[in-house]
C-alpha cells in the first residue's frame, strides 16, 4: 500500500503537519490560531506533497498521466494528510480543556475585531453596534466536533481540490 505515491505522500503530509502543530503548540499555543500562519501551512506544504505524488505517479506510468489520474492522486494525498491531521487536532482539542478554552477565547477576540472593522466602514448606529457586540458575548463562538468535521470537509475543496486540480493540469502528460 505504501508503494502508492498518493498514500505515501499523504502520510508524509500528515506527519509534517502534525510535527509543525506540536512544535507550534510547545512554542506558543496561540500560534495555532494565527490565520496567516494557518493559511501558509495549509497551502504551501500540501503543494509540495501533491506535486511530488503526481510526479511519482507519472513516472510509474512511464511518463503518461491524465488530468483525472493526477487529480485523484493529488486529492488522495490531501485527504489522507488532512484526515490524520484533523484527527490528531480533534483528540488534542477535546482532551485539553485549557487549549479548547484558549481557542474559543481567541475565536471570540477575532470575531469581535472583525465586527469592529465592519462597524468602521458602515453607518450602523452605535446603539446597534453595542447590541451586536453584546449578542456576540452572550453567544460566544464554540468549537465542536461537528465544526471540525465541517472544517475538514470544506478543506477538501479549498485548498485540497483546488491545489490538486491545478497541480494535475500543470503536470499531466498524455
In short:
The chain has helices at 5-27, 35-60, 67-95, 97-120, 126-138, 145-171. By secondary structure, it is an all-alpha fold. It is elongated.
What does this molecule look like?
This protein has one domain. The protein is built from six helices and no strands. The protein has helices at residues 5-27, 35-60, 67-95, 97-120, 126-138, 145-171. The relative contact order is 0.16.
SSE layout:
Elements: H1 5-27, H2 35-60, H3 67-95, H4 97-120, H5 126-138, H6 145-171
Helix pairs in contact: 1-2, 1-3, 2-3, 2-6, 3-6, 4-5
Count of DSSP H/I helices = 6
- The tally of domains stands at 1
What overall geometry do the principal axes of the alpha carbons give?
elongated
Round the Cα radius of gyration to an integer and report it: 20 Å
Distance between the termini: 26 Å
Round the mean pLDDT to the nearest integer and report it: 92
Question: Helicity, in percent?
Answer: over 70%
Number of strands: 0
Strand content: under 5%
**Low-confidence spans: pLDDT under 50, at least 5 residues?**
none
Main structural class:
mainly alpha
Main pleated sheet: none
Order of helices and strands: HHHHHH
Tag the structure with descriptive keywords:
mainly alpha
